[in-house]
Amino acid sequence: MMLMKMKHAYSRRARKRRAAIFRRLFPDAMDQSILDLGGGDGTHIASVVPGHKNVTIAEIDRKKLAHAESKFGHKGRVLSESPRLPFEDGEFDIVFCSSVIEHVTGPKDDVGNIRSTAEFEAQAAIHQRTFAEEVRRIGRGYFVQTPYKHFPIESHTIAPGFVVLLPRAAQLWLWRWWPFYNHVPDFNLLTVRDMQHCFPDAEIHRESVFGLTKSIMAVRRI
Question: What's the rounded Cα separation, in Å, for the pair 60 and 222?
Fold first, then answer.
C-alpha cells in the first residue's frame, strides 16, 4: 500500500513537470482546440489547461467520458479499436496524448497471449506507427508523451527497468505474479529512435529525473 501511494505521488509530480513543458511549448494553448487522445476521465488535461473551454476527450470508456463531460465540461468522443480515428484531417489545433502510444499494440484479447518477443514487437510497431500517422493527420500540432524504455524503473509496474528487455514469455509469467500490475500486459515501450520513426516531423523532448531520461515527448508546434 505504501509503495502504491509513493507511485501515485511520483506520477503526480511527473505530470506537473510535463504540464509545464506543454505550456511552455504551446503558450497559446488556451485559445486553441485541443483533443486529449485516450484522455480518460478528463482529470489530467484539466490540470494542464485548467478552465479551457474547447477540449475534446477521445476515449473507449463511456463512463470516463461521462465524467469528463459532467465535471469539466469537456466534449466527449467515443473511440473504437479501429486504426482510423473518427476525426477529419487537421480537425484540432493540438492533439495531446499522454502515456497512450505504448499501449497501442493490437487487440487486447490477442496481445496478452503473444509469447514470441519478435511477433509482439513487430505487431506493436505496426500499430504504433499507424496510430502516430493518425495523430499527425488530425492535429495541426501535437504533444505525444510516452515512458522511456530504458529508465531504471518501469513506470507501469514499478519493476526494475531491465524487465522490459526480458523475453516476452518471461514478462508474461512475471506480470501474472507481480503484485503491482493486474492489467493485460499490452505495453511496448519506445526509445527515442522509435519515436523519431513514428513522428519524423517532430521535435523530441525529454523529461529527466536525476539526469536520466524518464519520458520522451514528440512535439509538433503550430
Answer: 27
